[in-house]
Amino acid sequence: MTETINSHYGIYRTRLYYYYKIQYTQRMKLKNLIIIAALITALTSCKTTSENTLSYFRNLGDSPSGVMPQGSSYEIKIVPEDELSIVVTSSVPEATAMFNQPQANTAHRGDLNVQANPRLQTYIVNKDGDIVMPVIGRLNVVGKTTRELEQMITSRVSATVKDPFVRVEIIGFYINVMGEVKNPHRIYVNSERFTLLDALSAAGDLTEYGERGNVLVIREENGQQIYHRLDLADSNIFSSPYFYLQQNDVVYVEPNQIRIDNSKYNQNNAFKLSVISTIVSTASVVASLVIALAVK
């Protein structure tokens, strides 16, 4: 009787030993597979390149000096809703005073600061492209440059005033800068000579995730939205008609592949962890069942 009990006890211990040994082996294999998968994922996601993708105008090479490509004209044409500053003067200021609007203490559009000193009021171009000046009356100004409008007004004033001087400026127009820049916002511009680089500088420059080879400029031309892509690594952007920005232009910096991949990872991270946890739990249960059936 005692020998039979010892025999059964020995068999039970042997089976229990192999049960735990098999279960331990299965867990170690699963653990190693998870570690290997994590290492592969880390190595592929952290892949780097020796190419410098952050610098501008890379095609200039290492030359210490040189001449940039010829730039396009920065003169912009007047469009409806533009705000114009028009000043008419001459050697006898009293003779041209009637051609100017009275001074006021209001700020121009986009200026949030209260003006401490009086200034001449501005003209807003209406939807038909007209403004109305004192004495001269209605003028259609849309499609003209500030220089052309100066010549038109000078011709009208010259009929009554000797050697008049006319100064026309477009003030207060804006550019929208969006995407992968450090400070995306609407930029109010007080100069006609405003470049793509000025806009990016005003927005704090591109982030490290900005796609420097694919900066989008969106512009309204003849009632249509036109877009053009510029490569900041190419110095030939200086000769592009989109290098000098115009009223209401939109500058959009696209995200690079690293930002896109990170975004996808962040969005799916919780889901992936849930799936992995479910797979691991299921594999553990299946392994336990297989071991239990094998022991029986």
Main attributes?
single chain; 296 residues; alpha+beta; five-stranded mixed beta sheet; three-stranded antiparallel beta sheet; 5 helices; elongated
Model description:
The protein has 296 residues and is of the alpha+beta class. 36% of the residues lie in helices and 22% in strands. The chain contains five helices and twelve strands. The protein has helices spanning 2-45, 93-96, 146-157, 196-202, 257-295; strands at 83-89, 103-104, 119-120, 123-124, 130-133, 137-140, 165-171, 173-179, 185-189, 210-221, 224-230, 250-255. The strands form four sheets. A five-stranded mixed beta sheet has the order 9-8-12-10-11. Strands 4-1-7 form a three-stranded antiparallel beta sheet. The chain has a two-stranded antiparallel ribbon with strand order 2-3. It is elongated and about 120 Å long.
